[in-house]
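Re-run requested by the PI after the first attempt was lost when the workstation crashed. Everything re-entered from the original request form. Ligand of interest: guanosine-5'-triphosphate.
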Amino acid sequence: MRIRKAELEAVTGKPSQYPEEGITEIALAGRSNVGKSSLINTLINRNNFARTSGQPGKTQTINFYNINGDFRIVDLPGYGYAKVSVAERQKWANMIEKYLTSRQSLKEVVLLLDIRHEPGEHDKMMYDWIKSFGYKGYIIATKADKISKGQWQKYVSIIKKKLEVENTSLIIPFSASKKLNLEKVWETIESMLEMHEEKISLDKTQTEDE
Ligand code: GTP
Ligand code: MG
């Protein structure tokens, strides 16, 4: 994909401040510190455009990145960050839930997992939720530079088993720092966008036929 323009369109937790509905949104979910913001920076080839941090809990709002005016990548605040109060955690849960359950433009939710760590309880909950809403269930296994390529498959199998992933091909090892599998992630995003465009035109033809 050629990035002509990448723009941070909104930073908010409030539905009234979300950008207008109408173009496809792909959301990134995952534990705090897993590398969601880093993935966005790598995709659009900009350093620290999406703010990243060694400290977990950096992204605490929903950040909408508009790409080429065609679609949005949505950076969700990370879960599982221990050092927050119960009240803050509740606020987070409400914010995410509102977005995930009410957003019409949302077409895919991709789960990010650190390739080295066995998925935890929150990851499992998130993935089950993603599947229950009928999303495809793509997983990006981040920080793949931290293990050798020869070991990727072993870690992918652990993720597959723990989260009961239908197909290994849904799990993509990725490294933001070394740009490993960047092309593959882009191809996957493109296929998501195409699939939803086809669906829209199919829906249209069906309505016209009626
Ligand atoms: P929150 O905003 O807290 O939810 O975190 P996040 O998921 O956005 O993580 P972020 O992108 O800020 O990355 C967290 C840390 O992991 C940073 O120190 C990154 O430099 C590091 N990191 C992210 N991706 C990679 C990667 O592919 N390889 C390596 N080695 N480090 C990475
Ligand atoms: Mg972040």
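Saved to the shared folder this time. The domain at 6-209 is CATH 3.40.50.300 (Rossmann fold).
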